[in-house]
Every structure is written in structure tokens, then in C-alpha cells.
Amino acid sequence: MPESGRVPRIAITMGDPCGVGPEVVAAALSDPEVRRQCLPVVIGEPLAFRRACKVLGVEAEVREIRSPESVAESSIKEVPVYCPMRLEERDVEPGKPTNRTARATISYIETAVRMTMEGITDAVCTAPINKAVLASSGFPFPGHTEFLQYLTGSDKAVMMLVGPSLRVSLVTIHVPLREVCSLLSIEGITDTISITGKALWEFFGIESPRIAVCGVNPHAGEGGKFGREETEIIGRAVKRASDMLPFQISGPHPADTVFFHACRGAYDAVVAMYHDQGLLPIKLLHFHEAVNVTLGLPLIRTSVDHGTAYDIAGKGLAHPGSMKAAVSLAAKMVGQGRHRREAGRT
């Protein structure tokens, strides 16, 4: 069967089995529209997944598979679950993570990446992890994005948040606010613009991406009155990117106005300088629909845009909107990527 005719296979990690991950995955995969778009394989603990299905009243045909390769044998009605590290019932008590569940969570991510790199699956979609819990078990990475960059040997990974009316990429990610300005560089901003633009073309079907670049200071520095980063770093990066890339790039723009225009269609994406500058508008507009996408990797990865929510885990209260959107977007990105590759061969 030609690549374009095959339904995308998505490796969906359960995230922390003690959080809401199992529930949002179970809820998402009970949606007929989500199932129509992909063939999923859940990477995680079957005990936690079955419990989530029971809490939600979801009737799922769960099939435990012994090897990642067995996903190809699954029918469209089944939910194959592959578990690289088995846990016991006491290990997956909702809201009570341990070092053992942390290690299992890490193994889910590693397995999903390996399956996708080997071509068993077409994309990775991740449920939430808890950074503090993982750190307490010796996990050396700030979050998913940095770990995926390491696992794939990528030079740079870019976090993009995608909502129905807004896309935002970040230059810096999980760093203290006081360190942001010292981490800004012409090269780093240029690379973020480049990776963002290429992804918009390859995976979102945008022929000539329009990218707005934020300043970091109030009013984008007001000509140097409120800071020199815009004139000495960000503006130069915009000029360099405009000279070398076939995209429509503008900025630096004041962050307090650029998102207003972006969500009304003036731009295809905004490049923000730091975490909360970019996440605040996307979560304000699309709290239950936003998707975290990692750009710059040799694979497609989407994720929910929320945390483990231990306080409501196991209660059937978690909203599955972001997970549904993440699975759906992963499938669409696979399809668009195939289209670009096949068009390039003709």
C-alpha cells in the first residue's frame, strides 16, 4: 500500500500512570472521530489504562501486545497497549507517584521514540509527565522537549503551541525569567524562526509562512529606552532570517499587541522569547484545545498542553480536549508530511 493510503499509526504514551494521563488517553480513544484518523498504540501500564476506562465508563477492546512490532496486527476496533516496564497495582495509585512510576514514565517515552524512529509508528503523542517527580528520580532533563532532543540526537528542538486560532514558538523554554535575556542570541532566534517556518510549510501546508517575532521588553524596547535586546539581538536576528529564508518575517513586535493580530489571521505563527510570554495567550484562548508540538526533530511529536493534575487523577474529571486535539494533529501532520514528500518525488 502506498504511504499516502495508510492510516497513521500513532504511539501514544500514557505519561505518569498516577496522573490524569491514562484517563485523557482513554477518553480520546473512545471518540469515533479520533479513531477514524489513526491507528493508536498506547505505551504504558495496562492496569492504569483499564482502570481509567472503568472510571470513565468506556468500553474499550484493550489488547496487550508483547512487542512493538505487533501493533501492525491490531484491528481498527482494538486498542493495543504495549508496556515496556510492568508495574503492580500498588504502584499506580492515582495521585501518588513514586520513583518506580517515574522510571516507567521515562521508559514509555523512550519506547515511543524508538518505535517511531524505526518506522513501526508514524508519530509520537505524549500524555503529561510531572517534572518534579522525574527530577526526584534522577531524570536530568527539564522536560519532554529537551529529553526528545537528546533521544533523537537533534541539534535544536523548538516548542510550538498550536491552537485553533494561534501558533506560538518559543526561543527559550524551561528557564528562570531572570536568565532569559542572557540566553537570547542572534543565532538562537534565527534558528527558531527557521525551524518554525519549515514546519509550517512541511506539516501545516502553508506555502509562504508569515512569522511575527516578539520583543522581550515592554513596547519591544521603545527604541532602546526600555532595553537594548530588540536592537542588538532580536532585530538583527529578524534581518538575518529575512535575508536567508523564503518566509515573510517581521518584528520585533510588542508582545502586548502582536497576539491580538495573530489570532485574527495576520500571521501564521508568533515566535516568543520566553515560556510564559508565549503560553499565556495560547492558554487564555485555547485552554482545552491547545497542543504542544516539538519541532526540529526527525519525527513528529505532539502532546497535551496540561500537567498530571494529581488532585483529580482517578476521578474521571480530567478534560480530554487537549489529548483529542494532540492525537488529531499528529495524524494530520503525518498526512501533510507524506503529501510533501510524495509531491517532491514527482
Automatic annotation (TrEMBL):
Sorted UniProt keywords: Cytoplasm, Metal-binding, NAD, NADP, Oxidoreductase, Pyridoxine biosynthesis
An MF annotation (GO) of this entry: metal ion binding
Keyword Transmembrane helix: no
Compartments, record wording: Cytoplasm
Catalytic activity of the protein: 4-(phosphooxy)-L-threonine + NAD(+) = 3-amino-2-oxopropyl phosphate + CO2 + NADH
Residues annotated for substrate binding in this entry: 144-145, 283, 292, 301
Cofactor: a divalent metal cation
Pathway(s) per entry: Cofactor biosynthesis; pyridoxine 5'-phosphate biosynthesis; pyridoxine 5'-phosphate from D-erythrose 4-phosphate: step 4/5
Gene Ontology CC terms, in alphabetical order: cytoplasm
GO BP annotations listed: pyridoxal phosphate biosynthetic process; pyridoxine biosynthetic process
Cofactor comment: Binds 1 divalent metal cation per subunit.
Alphabetized Pfam families for the sequence: PdxA
The keyword Methyltransferase is assigned to this record: no
Note: The active site is located at the dimer interface.
Similarity section: Belongs to the PdxA family.
Function: Catalyzes the NAD(P)-dependent oxidation of 4-(phosphooxy)-L-threonine (HTP) into 2-amino-3-oxo-4-(phosphooxy)butyric acid which spontaneously decarboxylates to form 3-amino-2-oxopropyl phosphate (AHAP).
Protein name in the entry: 4-hydroxythreonine-4-phosphate dehydrogenase
